[in-house]
From TrEMBL:
The chain crosses the membrane at residues 21-41, 47-70. This is YdbS-like PH domain-containing protein. Keywords: Membrane, Transmembrane, Transmembrane helix. The keyword Nucleus does not apply. Residues 75-150 form the YdbS-like PH domain. The keyword Membrane applies. It holds the Pfam family bPH_2.
Amino acid sequence: MRPMPTSKLDPRIKSVWRINDAIWITIAGLCVVLPLWLAGIGTEEPVLFLLAGIAAAITVALYVLCLVVLPPIRYQRWRYQLTDDYLEIALGIIWRKRFIIPFIRVQNTDTRQGPIMRAFGLSSVTVATAAGEHEIPGLDAEQAEQVRDRAAELARLAREDV
């Protein structure tokens, strides 16, 4: 079996993941807990308050799972590597995925940076093929530009060799 790719993401990506997850968990939790709680106020039914309490407990459990437990594991499992012929990406906690993208198939390379990643000085590199897009998230902005430019150059060289 092929060895795992060696390049890691920037450690600051764990904070970005935590903030993104906190935002989504908060929105989802409020959309479930608040209506149940408000509906319980107008009735004599204690079951609505019970359901709101259960939903709040699930929300807290998701906070612990997604903000404390998963980011370090996710960070350890995320790897990528550029070679002269392909880009290899390995990721996943329970379901492991490995992608090998030959540069002969690459159509476009790009960098992306949302507001949270921008605040941490991070960017993502995307590599597009006819089959879809693959993303390397959480690279230092300067490193992301270097990876993007190197991937674009290797794709250009691979097309010239054909």
